[in-house]
Amino acid sequence: MKEFDLIKRFFTEQGVKRKDVVLGIGDDCALVHVSGRNNIAVTTDTLIAGVHFPHETSPRAIGHKSIAVSLSDLAAMGADPTWLSLALTVPEIDEKWLEEFCAGVFELCEYYNVQLIGGDTTQGPLSITVTAQGLTPVDKHITRSGAKAGDWLYVTGEIGDAALALKHIQGEITIEDVFKEQIVSKLDYPKPRVLAGHILRDYASSAIDLSDGLISDLGHICKASAVGANIVMEDLPISSVMSDTLGHEQAAQVALSGGDDYELLFTVSEDNKVGMETALANSGIAITCIGQLNASEVITTTFNKKPVPITVSGFEHFSSNSTV
Ligand code: ADP
Ligand code: MG
Description:
Layout: H1 3-12, E1 21-23, E2 30-32, E3 38-48, H2 59-77, E4 80-90, H3 95-112, E5 115-123, E6 127-137, E7 152-156, H4 161-169, H5 177-188, H6 194-200, E8 206-209, H7 214-225, E9 228-232, H8 240-246, H9 248-257, E10 264-268, H10 273-282, E11 287-294, E12 299-303, E13 306-308
Parallel strand pairs: 4-5, 9-12
Antiparallel strand pairs: 1-2, 2-3, 3-6, 4-6, 7-10, 7-11, 8-10, 9-11, 12-13
Helix pairs in contact: 2-3, 2-6, 4-5, 8-9
Bound molecules: adenosine-5'-diphosphate and magnesium ion.
């Protein structure tokens, strides 16, 4: 049994069904309605040393990433971040480490005006759990389940650099010295797409953030929306460092499967395409159309209009690819 089967079997079905839960288990965030014109979006994520980041990662990067991954889930719902809780487990009290970790945490909090309102501190192997909350106007959130056959598939930014950085850290490949810092910072300091999410709630039919790899995260949209998709491989937005280091074909495969991009993958109907493209361009957010949805309920890939087999899979806990 793997991560998603486990969640479904043990946690999704339960006896309690409250009316104030707008959306429960299964999306990037849950949504609850208390009163007034907003829903509260809630997400929890854990980062474990050696699983979600290499042991040698700097404390500032660990602090940054702990917050960024949760804000990224809020962005995927179109929610504006508001509050955070932080559960920190550290092996010992190391003041220098804690100062730098907090610098990473509070830099993002200040940028997005998110307040840390609670948490827990315990001793044990390094692990960080963040619960983030945000607000979306009632009926304006984005889910994984709203995509329709015929919708266009888009991604923000560039994908695959974080996976490239991991390959470099693990000694599988060598990145040219001049580009090392730039690529490793994509892994260590992901930028949550909060502004893009805010804009997309007016346009997108579905969205997810890319944490486990494009192929796996697109799978979640397709499953939740009962649609299929074709990805146009030559259109994947890959950095020049990535294609120079791996060659375009292998780079595209790594971009399909590599995790930790924290870009948004989203779909938009033909009718909303121009409005969405204009709104994001006006905010300086780069996006790329990488394919289209269909009614097949399977994911396919083409290169120069010819079908190519998918030989990779994304990240899943309890599978063979689940440590770094
Ligand atoms: P994400 O990658 O966006 O953080 P996940 O893939 O980790 O989301 O989780 C999928 C869904 O399952 C989410 O809605 C999450 O809240 C839910 N989930 C994961 N683990 C549990 C659990 N132990 N109990 C209840 N819900 C869970
Ligand atoms: Mg997510």
